[in-house]
Specification:
Layout (H helix, E strand, L loop, with lengths): L1 H14 L3 E2 L11 E2 H57 L1
Antiparallel strand pairs: 1-2
Helix pairs in contact: 1-2
GO cellular component, one term: plasma membrane
Keywords: Cell membrane, Membrane, Transmembrane, Transmembrane helix
InterPro entries: LapA_dom (IPR010445)
Length: 91
């Protein structure tokens, strides 16, 4: 599968060799082939997706850790109250 993607990328680069410059309103990027700009944008988008999803995953894991800690504290308190109630019922 990766060989097919690599082949498609090579064919894409071969067929899109026109030099273009990118105008971002405030700055103009230097001329490069259309395929390089598109592949660069694709790679940058993939990298940003990985970074942003990693931040979200870490945030959710941190929240999960604290919620598990809170749940264990509540479970211990419930067990303690149940033990006290059982002791009171025994007398």
């Amino acid at each position: 599968m990766s060989l097919v993607v690599l082949l498609a990328g090579i064919l894409f680069a071969i067929h899109n060799t026109a030099a273009v410059s990118i105008d971002l309103i405030f700055i103009t990027l230097p001329e490069a082939s259309l395929s390089m700009w598109l592949l660069g944008a694709f790679a940058l988008g993939g990298l940003l997706g990985v970074v942003l999803s990693s931040v979200i995953i870490m945030t959710l894991k941190t929240r999960l850790y604290y919620l598990k800690k809170k749940m264990n504290a509540a479970r211990e308190q419930l067990d303690s109250l149940s033990a006290n109630q059982a002791r009171l019922d025994g007398h």
